[in-house]
Amino acid sequence: MFESAELGHTIDKERYAQDEPELRHALLTAQYELVKRGEFPVVILIGGVDGAGKGETLNLLNEWMDPRHIQTNAMRPMGEDKFQDRPPMWRFWRVLPPKGRIAIFVGSWYSQPLIKRVYGELKTAKLGQSIDEILRFERMLTDEGTLLLKFWLHLSRKGQAKRFKSLAKKKKTAWRVSDTDWKHLEMYDKFQSVAEHLLRETSTAEAPWLVVEGADERYRSLTIGKSILEAIRKRLDNPTRPTRIARTPPRIQPLDGLSILDRLDLTQSVGKADYEDQLALEQGRLNMITRQKGFEKRSVVAAFEGCDAAGKGGAIRRVTQALDARKYDVIPIAAPTDEEKARPYLWRFWRHIPEKGRIAIFDRSWYGRVLVERIEKYCGEPDWGRAYGEINDFEAQLVKNDTVVVKFWLQISKEEQLRRFKEREEIAFKQHKITSEDWRNREKWDDYNVAVCEMIDRCSTQVAPWTLVEANDKYFARLKVIRTIADALEAAI
Amino acid sequence: MFESAELGHTIDKERYAQDEPELRHALLTAQYELVKRGEFPVVILIGGVDGAGKGETLNLLNEWMDPRHIQTNAMRPMGEDKFQDRPPMWRFWRVLPPKGRIAIFVGSWYSQPLIKRVYGELKTAKLGQSIDEILRFERMLTDEGTLLLKFWLHLSRKGQAKRFKSLAKKKKTAWRVSDTDWKHLEMYDKFQSVAEHLLRETSTAEAPWLVVEGADERYRSLTIGKSILEAIRKRLDNPTRPTRIARTPPRIQPLDGLSILDRLDLTQSVGKADYEDQLALEQGRLNMITRQKGFEKRSVVAAFEGCDAAGKGGAIRRVTQALDARKYDVIPIAAPTDEEKARPYLWRFWRHIPEKGRIAIFDRSWYGRVLVERIEKYCGEPDWGRAYGEINDFEAQLVKNDTVVVKFWLQISKEEQLRRFKEREEIAFKQHKITSEDWRNREKWDDYNVAVCEMIDRCSTQVAPWTLVEANDKYFARLKVIRTIADALEAAI
What ipTM, to 2 d.p.? Predict the structure, then answer.
């Protein structure tokens, strides 16, 4: 796939002098329109062979366009940065640009798999996994509206050798060729073979790799500049990007009308004295587990969802009572802030992902996408339809990074909900807990049931299973919740 | 000042059992009102003698109130955390709570000065500096509307010894007493003497230390709980907090009407050929400086302000052209986001403070407070009046952390501005640079002049001087800007 990039492409001075000002002007104009309309973000990856002009291209783009609206991310090699406590993709999530902005990555999610594979630290099977992760991440980006452009700057083996030699010759530039560079030149074929594999597997319809010959600066610069211009212009001029067909497969409608929620035995209960004994016991157990040495290499992400008035708050409180307040955060999920709205949906959850040795408790969660947002039509079917896969992927990444993921659905019967709503209206200090919205949601009880069942069917995975909690009896529910967390953590440590 | 906290205060079981439920309910109610109204944040510091119940208090407050709206910050000892690249206060700024939220700090801006002074790593004079910094930081917090509550949990020497012994005796709690704890018990008097000094100097009218005897858990808990309740209630019930008298001293009105801006020789200019030669030279020099080893221990914060159409963007562009795009960020200051609006004014600048080895270029800056916000009355005189001091303090902290701070005011004449406005309206690709707001601002030319002069008089400090740039000639201005940055950086390295 590098053949066309070894033809010795060149652009002469005259043509460059003629094309460049026009290109710059058009790029700048497009950029300002992008900023002003604020409809989508642009992510540009610049990868390629060392010496092929990655750094130069980055600088040039910042010079051609208005650098105030560009953010540049030169990721340090993983292992050297500060984010090793979090899943590998965290460092990229945190710097995703908002709508209207351009982010350029030199060193991206491709760097680590490439280097590690070349050095033999990653087996082919593992490389395959990395590629899958990349594909899912990029699909999420493009589905969320990001314009993703991937450039690969290529040099032939000869070209690379020539480049290094010419740099090394002059005193002024000699420092730019490191020992590692010379070593990598020796490994040229290995690099090429892994790179080709990576590029081939990740050249998708929506974000193909654009391979550019890097030897001639003028050719390289104009080619990249024009590609970026064309892509941004095209999107600006055709703002209704083709809606991707929802990836929601047809759902099995149970012919007998029986759902997993119906199967829950909501009559289960625990007496007060028993509850108090067992709660103290389980809280003590959970507390001790979080004090163990092994906990420092783990983190916990707990998501609480449930019917209105099912007792999420109370259950969360019984968990936090057991924990040292220095070790946990409770994150209540309310309406997104404007910084959150400008970025892909999962961004506002990624930003709260805990470091090792910490527990993040989400009061409502990323499942809002397939529950309230689906039912209230805050997003379209293509959006919530793909959310199941994105969520599974998100949780798998957490688990892979030694996070224990627990998810609770607290279920009560429709009658019990009515009883609690009325109680809340009557008791003074509970009135803040009931609003007209709760009553409106109640009318959609059946819609929620369908959405909940689909959510559980599609997102209860081996690594991050859903725990359904029979919550008509609060004591029973709280015990089940805290016991589940303690069990999961114990099993992990 | 610890005498009253060694009286052996106790609360018996009966009274506790009676008071506690009522207190909890009142606290929770106050907290929900706080959240709902979202008018001010609450910051609670819990400091004191080891073993006096800091951790227990933190946990208790999270249990009594709704932990979803509390954030807990247990700062690791500085030197162990990830933020050593930034000024010491950065780690606190980044976790300041938004309006409506409560943040509890166990381990705060007092921890480091206290420990270091006890261990003799900080001379008395330096401790004095730390205290000044703390006073300024806390005054900023309270001026910005934060309800700041500071609790100091005290134990007598005997009390501390007793506490440690009783913990060490039982197998279940023995791990809680560390070697450091025993060592600190030996140093009790030293700790007390430094603590007393610290507390005395930082007990201000608005945020005095509340010393609480820590020996009796019930006494301690009720005392702290009631103090918090009372303080929050008081503020909720009297939302118009007494406006602090503006700290704007009377300004000297020059009798002859002459200002520093009038003294600028705006006719200074450079020919095109000269400009191009010198620009290349200065850009090369700046580039080389940022490649030096010494640069990795420095950072640069550059703020650009100036009349409309004075050429800020063009000047910034000439600077960034000289830099490796991996080393700088340009931060355009526009309207604050809602996350920014919920926090103290300077928060949105602190979040962009660069790590070492990096350059942050602010296109417009924190000086907006004393320029546009003052003139357009976006904030009151008490707010912009105190901003001068807050800004000087902010910049001093940067400089102290090895940041080179450069600040440019680009000045053009009123006639030159008119010429440029008209030009912008005429040339197609410049039209996005001129709006009706620019014309409106122009009418306030004289007001801006007064504000600019006051800003320069009060914020041009030795550590972070203002550079006034005569900008009628763009070439001259750009050269002066880039030369100033290169000189400042060269002097620093």
Answer: 0.76
